[in-house]
Every structure is written in C-alpha cells, then in structure tokens.
Specification:
The protein has 286 residues and is an alpha+beta fold. The protein has two domains: 4-120, Aminotransferase class 4, branched-chain amino acid transferase, N-terminal domain (D-amino Acid Aminotransferase, Chain A, domain 1); 128-284, D-amino Acid Aminotransferase, Chain A, domain 2, CATH 3.20.10. Helix content is 29%, strand content 29%. The protein contains eight helices and 15 strands. The protein binds pyridoxal-5'-phosphate. Residues 182, 185-187, 206, 208-211, 244-246 line the site of pyridoxal-5'-phosphate (PLP). It is an enzyme of class 2 (transferase).
Length: 286
Amino acid sequence: MTGIVYVNGEYLPAEEAKISVFDRGFLMADAIYELTAVVDGKLIDFPAHLARLDRSLAELDIVNPHGYDEWLALHRELVARNAVTEGSVYVEVTRGNTGERAFEYPPAEIPPTVVAFATNRPGIVDSPAAAAGLRIVTLPDLRWQRRDIKTVQLIYQAQAKMLAKRAGADDGWLVEDGFVTEGTSNNAYIVRKGRIVTRPLGNDILHGITRASLLRFAREAQMEVEERQFTVAEAQAADEAFITSATGFVTPVVEIDGTAVGTGKPGPVALRLREIYIDESRKTAL
Ligand code: PLP
C-alpha cells in the first residue's frame, strides 16, 4: 500500500504511519471500520456509512471521535490527496492505546485511534466480475453472534474466502441452521419469479448499506422484495442470485456449490439492479 494515509490527525506517507503495539485494535480486534466506495471522485452512500459507523461504535461504547462534517472532510481529503476517481475509502476507529494488554475497557480519557486510507480501484464500475458472474461455494457460518456490528474481527471471513478460492470458487456464502446468512463480505440474494429474496436484518448479518439502498430502489421501481431466509437448495433452484457490497455494488452469482443458477449466466434482474444502483447512487454521491 502506498499513498497518503491518515493517523490520529495527521496525513502521512503510508510508510511513515505508525500505531502502538498496545493499540486495542491490534491486540483484540477492538475496533470498528467502514468502507465507502468512490465513483467519479465522489463518495457513494456516505451519510448511511457514517450512520452505521456511529451505530457500531455506540454498540461497543467507543465514543465517536469526529462529527459528520469532520468525517466528510477527512474522506474528501484522502480522496483528493490520493487522486482517487474510482475506488474506496477505509476508516477504522479503535478503542485506543492503553499502554498495556488488559481485557477491561480503559478509562474514558484514553482517546480512540483513527486510521484511514484511500485506494484506487479502477474497474469497480465496469467490472469484469459483474460481467462474468461469481461462482460461490457454501461454508458453515462460524462467526460470533453480533455480525451487525462492523468490527475488524474478520479472521473467519478471511479464512472462508480462502477456503472458497482453494475450492476453485470466487467467494463463499455462509450458512447457519440450514439458511444462507450472507457472503464473506457481502449480502446475499436470490430472485424467484421476479421477486427479490434476501435475509431480514438481525444480529446475524451485517446491515449492508448497499442492501438498504438497493431494496429502496427496487421497491421504487415497483419490484417485489421479500425479506426472508432462504436455503442453499432454494438458491440453487432460483432464477437468479446476486450479492451486494460497497465496492461490488450488485454482482451476479452464476453458480452455487457447482450447480448453475438459472441459465448459468448473469441474470437480467441482477444486471438491471446493478445499473439502477450505480445510476441512482451516483446522483447522491458527495
Ligand atoms: N456483509 C458482510 C459480512 C460484509 O463484510 C459486508 C461489507 O463489508 C457486507 C455485508 C456489505 O455491506 P455494505 O453494502 O455496507 O458494503
């Protein structure tokens, strides 16, 4: 990683940026993050990403160190300093550096650590993965039970993605009690008879920002949305499947555990939703 990053109030070349070995983000994954897509040099769905950052921090009793305007300025500064036209901004807030390793939360006067960086990712809009569609394998969901909090505790998601890649697939969908929860880093959907089906919100999935916007756009376009659980077998027998995430937008899924979904090609509903999402979210980009 190169470029200019942000650490606790300073913009620095990445190789000069440092945090303490006693930072709780490093020692305990005691940290929250957000990732916002950048298209045309602008932030996609920014207010919703900030609202989720606020909520995640509040769930862990970490005081949000910045207000909305400061966060927006920080994001824009990183986009500008790194000349990002298409890509993402990552921000992380940890409970801070206590100078020791202890399980108890430190006293309130210990300031949170803030780290942020921007990444150029040309091709997220004109994405080859979206044109080809993804091959998915399913894996058991072995994560903790507060997946609605966007913590940096991502080791199982990383492991699941590696297991999926080693099995020759592009990504993994996680399964609990016979039902798909979500993808390793995205929300999961199927399309049946024109209806979009996705798992309802709860503590068992991340409340995807792309999910919220997409479902709103779909309803506005008079498409039917069913928020309910679905099984792997139902997904394999569906007309279409797809995922959503901040930088993947809407990406079709063409195969699940070796079984072609629908025609085995990206489906018309998924491709239409991708177009709608990108067009609509560009209009409100900041
Ligand atoms: N689910 C999980 C587990 C994720 O890690 C992510 C994104 O990182 C998502 C869903 C999608 O969320 P969003 O649309 O806010 O990027």
